[in-house]
């Protein structure tokens, strides 16, 4: 039996997930999905920033296009930290396709003119 806090909404239900994947403690169906996902293949959304190579001391914010497996976060952050881009940038611009073969793109989230 694993106990975890549902983070899907601010209510923060305390979930219990047994070895058969039965979830209790949820106040809505989203907690069931979260509890099963979190105990079988936990995923995390990634946001960060990368250097703008032609603008000294300037960073631009980026995000992953989809959640990534929790156990890949360190590798993904290392790969993101190695990326650079030249200004101007556009929101939605892809900096890196299929990062580390995970099927996730790294996308610019700030416009720099
Ligand atoms: S189970 Fe539903 S109500 Fe409870 S925290 Fe998760 S999303 Fe919110």
Task: Describe the secondary-structure layout.
Layout: E1 2-5, E2 14-17, E3 23-24, H1 29-40, E4 43-44, E5 47-52, E6 59-64, E7 68-69, H2 73-81, E8 84-85, E9 94-96, E10 106-108
Parallel strand pairs: 5-8
Antiparallel strand pairs: 1-2, 2-3, 4-7, 5-6, 6-10, 9-10
Brief summary of the model shown:
With 113 residues, this protein is α+β, with helices and mostly antiparallel strands. It has helices spanning 29-40, 73-81; strands at 2-5, 14-17, 23-24, 43-44, 47-52, 59-64, 68-69, 84-85, 94-96, 106-108. It has a five-stranded mixed β-sheet. A three-stranded antiparallel β-sheet has the order 1-2-3. The chain has a two-stranded antiparallel sheet with strand order 4-7.
Describe the protein in words.
By secondary structure, the protein is of the alpha+beta class. It folds into 2 domains: 2-40, no CATH class; 47-108, CPE0013-like fold, CATH 3.10.530.10. The chain is 19% helix and 30% strand. The radius of gyration is 18 Å and the shape is elongated. The chain starts with a strand and ends in a 5-residue tail after the last strand. The mean pLDDT is 96. Iron/sulfur cluster (SF4) binds at residues 6, 8-9, 11-13, 26-28, 30-31.
Write out the distinct hetero groups bound to the structure: iron/sulfur cluster
Specify the helix fraction band: 10-25%
Please tell me how large the radius of gyration is. 18 Å
DSSP strand tally: 10
Q: Which CATH C-level class of the largest domain is it?
A: Alpha Beta
What's the total helix number? 2
At CATH's second level, what is the architecture of the largest domain? Roll
- Give the count of structural domains: 2
SSE succession: EEEHEEEEHEEE
């Amino acid at each position: 039996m694993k106990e975890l806090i549902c983070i899907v909404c601010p209510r923060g239900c305390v979930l219990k997930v047994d070895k058969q994947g039965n979830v209790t403690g949820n106040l809505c169906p989203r907690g069931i999905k979260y509890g099963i996902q979190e105990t079988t293949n936990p995923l995390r959304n990634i946001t960060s920033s990368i250097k703008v190579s032609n603008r000294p001391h300037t960073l631009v914010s980026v995000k992953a296009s989809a959640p990534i497996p929790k156990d890949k976060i360190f590798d993904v952050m290392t790969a993101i930290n190695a990326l650079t881009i030249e200004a101007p940038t556009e929101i939605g611009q892809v900096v890196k396709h299929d990062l580390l073969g995970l099927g996730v793109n790294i996308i610019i989230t700030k416009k720099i003119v």
